[in-house]
TrEMBL record:
Protein name: Glutamyl-tRNA reductase
Gene3D superfamilies named among the record's database cross-references: Glutamyl-tRNA reductase, N-terminal domain (3.30.460.30), NAD(P)-binding Rossmann-like Domain (3.40.50.720)
Site (Important for activity): H93
The keyword Flavoprotein is annotated on this UniProt entry: no
Catalytic class of the enzyme: oxidoreductase
Pathway of action: Porphyrin-containing compound metabolism; protoporphyrin-IX biosynthesis; 5-aminolevulinate from L-glutamyl-tRNA(Glu): step 1/2
Length: 446
């Protein structure tokens, strides 16, 4: 078990805007992990990059090392958009992310798969050691429990997914062509939801094409997705079965001339469904009068989302309690591992002394020592070591459980004269940082 501490940094939909997220996004999660591992004294690294968050977790000797590595990693991002956390808060946040409590859509399912993929990428890049192995696998376990034991992922809670649900009541989305106008938060949610619903083709139109391309990269692989500039709107509306508009523009961006004559032709009798998520409206009111167009606005979606929001809020409280319990178990796991380190060091020291003294004793015996005699002496020495160390072994494990790390240091100094307490922290990170990095690495209770 590493003796370092976890430090994390993140840029999310809450802390920054689309430009900040784009600036923070690495070439790939694996490449980002390898980059962090080149920083001196960084032993482990894990990076989670999605359209709504870029998070990096590192293990170093102390938080100063971790903060320096993360400052370099997020150098291209405005400082105000980057949130940096110490050990306990970083671990708890990772559990919350996997459980869906930090998502734009409370309890959404996609994030658990993204956490797992990031773990595999980090492991392949050599970034997962004993500390992050315990932390990330615990996060995945919590995310799975949250979704199987609570209703955190039931129903529809976002306007983007509600738009998909409303459209699905009007037409079959499987095999359909969808157009999302706008690549902001609501456009992202709508695009993701439409991809999950099985549309055959998805086009995202946005004033800044780079933002639309970033959104398209996050859509299900089975969906044929493309990004186009807003100026190309008129050329793509003609083949869209469903259009979701969510630009935040002050004026309508989807006008009747984009639609008139494009639907209800001799080639198809199907209606074109438009969901307007804009506030003010993104769709010109006259569009609803077109013969083969049905327009739904925010008022039409409210009934779909209200009940689900309440249900998921109740489930979120259950998940919070679950996270508290699992976080305590993770801390206990670290404590046991740290105690076992101390115990192993104690036994190694005793083993060296035993081997030396056995050889000395055997050399003093007259005549040639037989194998049976050697076995008797070694068995006696082993029994003495085990009996002498059994009580302190028990005491060390109890001391670790009670955060009594001075006892562990004292025991190491007594049993191992070569032990130097200045070699590095031996307590779990929350204890080390609370005493050694006051104000930054304090525990959550401080």
């Amino acid at each position: 078990m590493s003796t370092g501490v976890v430090t994390a940094g993140r840029v999310t939909h809450e802390s920054g805007g689309v430009d900040d997220l784009a600036a923070a996004s690495p070439e790939s999660q694996g490449a980002a992990v390898r980059e962090l591992l080149t920083v001196p004294d960084i032993d482990e690294a894990y990076v989670l990059s999605t359209c709504n968050r870029v998070e990096a977790y590192v293990v170093g000797a102390d938080h100063a090392v971790g903060r320096a590595a993360l400052a370099e990693f997020f150098a291209a991002v405005d400082d105000d958009a980057v949130v940096t956390t110490a050990h306990d808060e970083s671990l708890r946040h990772l559990l919350r992310v996997a459980a869906g409590l930090e998502s734009v859509i409370l309890g959404e399912d996609q994030i658990i798969g993204q956490v797992r993929t990031a773990y595999e990428d980090a492991r392949d890049a050599g970034g997962i050691g004993s500390m992050l192995e315990a932390a990330v696998t615990k996060a995945i376990h919590v995310g799975e429990r949250a979704r199987t034991e609570t209703g955190i992922n039931e129903g529809v809670v976002s306007l983007g997914s509600a738009a998909t649900r409303r459209a699905a009541e009007e037409l079959d989305l499987e095999g359909a062509t969808a157009l999302v106008v706008g690549a902001g938060e609501m456009g992202q949610l709508a695009a993701r939801s439409l991809g999950d619903a099985g549309v055959d083709e998805l086009v995202v139109a946005n004033r800044t094409v780079a933002h639309a391309e970033h959104l398209v990269d996050d859509v299900e692989d089975e969906t044929d997705a493309a990004a186009v500039p807003l100026e190309a709107l008129e050329t793509v509306t003609s083949r869209a079965d469903i259009i979701v508009a969510a630009t935040g523009s002050e004026e309508p961006v989807l006008e009747t001339h984009h639609l008139d004559g494009d639907t209800g032709t001799d080639e198809t009798d199907s209606e074109q469904v438009i969901v307007d998520l804009g506030q003010p409206r993104d769709v010109e009111p006259a569009a609803d009068a077109l013969p083969a167009v049905r327009v739904f606005d925010l008022d039409d979606l409210e009934s779909i989302t209200a009940e689900t929001r309440e249900q998921r809020a109740d489930a979120a409280r259950e998940v919070e309690s679950m996270i508290d319990a699992e976080f305590d178990l993770l801390c206990d796991q670290y404590k046991r591992a740290r105690a076992d380190e101390a115990i192993a060091a104690m036994y190694e020291s005793a083993e060296r002394i035993k081997d030396r003294e056995v050889e000395t004793a055997l050399s003093h015996l007259e005549g040639e020592v037989t194998d049976d005699q050697r076995e008797v002496v070694e068995a006696m020495a082993d029994a003495l070591v085990n009996q002498l160390l059994a009580p302190p072994t028990k005491s060390l494990r109890e001391a670790a459980a009670e955060d009594d790390w001075s006892t562990i240091h004292t025991a190491l100094q007594l049993f191992n004269p070569e032990f130097d307490s200045d070699d590095g922290p031996l307590a779990p990170p929350s204890v080390v940082t609370a005493s050694a990095d006051t104000g930054i690495g304090a525990t959550d209770d401080d």
